[in-house]
Structures are given as structure tokens and as C-alpha cells.
Design brief:
By secondary structure, this protein is mainly α. It has two domains: 113 residues, Leucine-rich Repeat Variant (Alpha Horseshoe), CATH 1.25.10; 104 residues, Alpha Horseshoe (Leucine-rich Repeat Variant), CATH 1.25.10.90. The protein is built from 15 helices and no strands. Helix 9 packs parallel to helix 12 and helix 12 packs parallel to helix 14. The longest helix is centred in the middle third of the chain and has 18 residues. It is globular, with a radius of gyration of 19 Å.
Length: 240
């Protein structure tokens, strides 16, 4: 049985390798800032588009957490992304099995060091962390938001997208408050994006939040938050 599982993992890696696109890989390594001193220094790309990775991931939902761990430990970006896509499928399959969902959620949090680029966070955090914490104590998000690790902070705010979709805005606003003076551009964009999502559902709540904070917010965060406002309104907010 163990040999069969190991064989499945090898097959997955082989399938990914067969899809390698060196030209696209070079583009992605620049786009995702993998150079020396950049936020994703050393990340290696095969150059595979996400839809292809999703298709491959669905074939290997039977992989064990131990095998998924091996993929998450890889320096190859697509290995880690496919591992997370498989984890999402496992989480969905668990349905009402809260024990299994907790196991996957805790496994995810144990691997935050490997969820170390913005696309990895954005594709996975709402589906696992955000979904799970809707029925659990969400103070964990606030702990993550106060972390020195940028990816944990991004997980905190992006996870609240699951709350926003349920029209629960308090968690997003609370995490946004914690991250209001964050120094990293990737956090500015993430917070602004989540605030924008609130505004698409309830503009008054967003405007109320911005009314006492817009002067202190990084300009990128504010621009993202008001992106869907009419042009004249955007200009007024930026001048306040």
C-alpha cells in the first residue's frame, strides 16, 4: 500500500514536470519577486498555469498528509500550490466532518512557513482557514495578523474573505485595523482588496470605516479599497 502511495506522488511530480514551460517560468520568477533580497527569494517555478495545476490536483486527492507535506517542503512553487489545491479538495470532501476539517486546518497552520507567496495564500486561505474559523473562535486570525511573518499576516486578512461572502464584516474590519500601519506593500494591497469586497456588498460600512482612517492608511490600501467608487468619489477620498 505504501509503495502505491509513493508511486502516486511520483506520478504527480512527473505530470507537473511534463507541463514545464521554461519561458513562462522566467516570467513568473520575475513577477513573483524571486530575486535576491526580494520577498520570494529562491522560489523556483516550472511555469505551469493554475488551471492545469487544478486539473492535476483533482486526480491526486487521495494523497496522504505525509505526502502532501513532502510537496509543501519543496522549493518548487507548483509543488506547493498543487499540495494546497489537494488540501482544499480534501477539506471540501470532509463536508460536515468537523474532526477531519480541524485536522486539515491545523495541518495548514503548521505549514505557514511553506505557504510563502501571495498566490499560495490567496488561493487557499479563505477556503480552509476562513471557512473553518466561521464555526470556531476567530481570535486565531488576530494572532496571525500580529505576526512578524508577512505571509501569516496576509493569511489573516485574506482568510476573512470567507466571512465577507457570508456578509460578516466585523472580522475583516478588525484585522484591517491591526494591519492599518503595516509597512509591506503586499499587505496594503490585501487589506485594500478585502475592504473593497466589503464595499461591493455594503458601501456605507466601508465609508464609515474609511471616514476616520483614510488619512492614516497607506495610499495603496486606500486606492484598492475605493477602486469601485465612481471617479469623482475616488478623487475626493484621495484628497481628504
Amino acid at each position: 500500500m505504501q509503495n502505491e502511495l509513493n508511486s502516486e506522488l511520483k506520478n504527480l511530480k512527473r505530470e507537473l514536470q511534463e507541463q514545464e514551460n521554461p519561458i513562462q517560468a522566467k516570467v513568473l520568477q520575475r513577477f513573483f519577486k524571486t530575486g535576491k533580497g526580494e520577498y520570494a527569494e529562491g522560489d523556483i517555478f516550472l511555469g505551469i498555469k493554475v488551471p492545469i495545476q487544478r486539473k492535476i490536483a483533482k486526480k491526486y486527492i487521495g494523497l496522504s498528509l505525509k505526502e502532501i507535506q513532502e510537496l509543501l517542503n519543496s522549493k518548487i512553487h507548483e509543488h506547493r500550490l498543487v499540495a494546497l489545491l489537494i488540501l482544499i479538495e480534501k477539506y471540501k470532501k470532509a463536508k460536515k466532518n468537523q474532526i477531519e476539517k480541524r485536522r486539515i486546518f491545523e495541518f495548514y497552520l503548521d505549514n505557514t512557513k511553506n505557504i510563502n507567496n501571495w498566490d499560495l495564500v490567496d488561493l487557499s486561505a479563505p477556503n480552509i482557514v476562513g471557512n473553518f474559523l466561521q464555526k470556531e473562535k476567530s481570535f486565531i486570525l488576530r494572532e496571525l495578523a500580529k505576526s512578524e511573518n508577512i505571509w501569516k499576516r496576509r493569511i489573516a486578512i485574506i482568510s476573512t474573505y470567507a466571512f465577507i461572502k457570508k456578509r460578516i464584516f466585523g472580522e475583516t474590519l478588525a484585522i484591517s485595523e491591526i494591519l492599518l500601519h503595516d509597512e509591506h506593500d503586499l499587505i496594503h494591497k490585501a487589506v485594500g482588496w478585502m475592504l473593497r469586497e466589503i464595499g461591493k456588498r455594503n458601501k456605507e460600512i466601508l465609508e464609515l470605516f474609511l471616514s476616520t482612517r483614510n488619512k492614516d492608511m497607506p495610499r495603496t490600501m486606500l486606492r484598492y479599497a475605493i477602486e469601485k467608487f465612481p471617479k469623482e468619489e475616488r478623487e475626493k477620498w484621495m484628497k481628504r
